[in-house]
Amino acid sequence: MAQITIVGLGQIGASIGLALGDQKSALKRVGHDKKLDVERAARDKGAVDETQHNLPSAVREANLVMLCLPVSQVRETLEFIEEDLREGAIVMDTSPVKSAVIDWARELLPAGRYYVGLVPALNPDLLHEHGFGVEAARADLFKNGLMVIDAPPGTPAEVVELASGLTRLLGAAPLLADAAESDGLMAGVHLLPQLAAAAFLNATVDQPGWQESRKLAGRPFASVTAALAYQDDIDALRAAALQNRENTVRAMDIFLAAMRGLRDDISNEDDEGVALRLEQALDGRNRWWRERMAADWQAESQVPMDVPTFVERFLGTAFIRKSQG
Fold this sequence. Notes:
Layout: E1 2-7, H1 11-19, E2 27-32, H2 36-45, E3 50-51, H3 55-60, E4 64-67, H4 71-81, E5 90-93, H5 99-108, E6 114-120, E7 146-150, H6 157-169, E8 173-177, H7 179-204, H8 210-213, H9 219-229, H10 234-243, H11 245-267, H12 271-294, H13 296-301, H14 307-315, H15 320-324
Parallel strand pairs: 1-2, 1-4, 2-3, 4-5, 5-6, 7-8
Antiparallel strand pairs: 6-7
Helix pairs in contact: 4-5, 6-14, 7-9, 7-11
């Protein structure tokens, strides 16, 4: 029986385990988390078959190690497990920054071990769900979403195919990209909304008049600030922004230019200019929402998956044995 070890049993990690629950006859799901109560919760929820709190022991027999961690914890984890990875083992991670992680994997992973980065986009039906942590894990978290697959140059095709098969097993469609492209995309749609929420909060909370305005803050305030509020590790955002610095600064510059344009139109009492900007923004949001709900791009990239083939690869009959030969 092949083993997948999931390191980090928050919403993403536990959801991966839950989505693989139907494969328990062929895949052994081992979980590890720094917090014992999280390990217990994941095991009680059925996200893993067993937990192993000793990290080297948790990964030693794993064919696949899935790091579901903030990027701030990825390097130290790779350093900690590098000597315990078996020949042919594959390491994947789900952090939103890939160029830095690829560099770390290239530096730290021994020969004969492979790295592939994954960036999940969630089930469109769950975009307004605000839970986090193992309590918010669910088997359909990735259904009808995309999974960006970042494979470093030189990665064997069999490893990329395994990542694609795993993606489909989770209910998502694979989207192959290089790290530079992936990091650029995530800076605009993942990091920027959270940083904009932080800036907005710093511009309002405890500013003059806040003692009264806080009583009136309603749905618009709650919606704009939600991007920062519903996460369990603020340090992850700090690290991701700094590790993806150039793309993040570029995205912020575009955002600031858009704010300045709107500000100038309002300052100049340009009624048509303000109306045009707001109409374009609302139209863009509505179009994105329809497209995201329909997920038509999934149909374009969906390829029927032969689950036994995925399991065979994971068991090693198609790839691991070849790497050892």
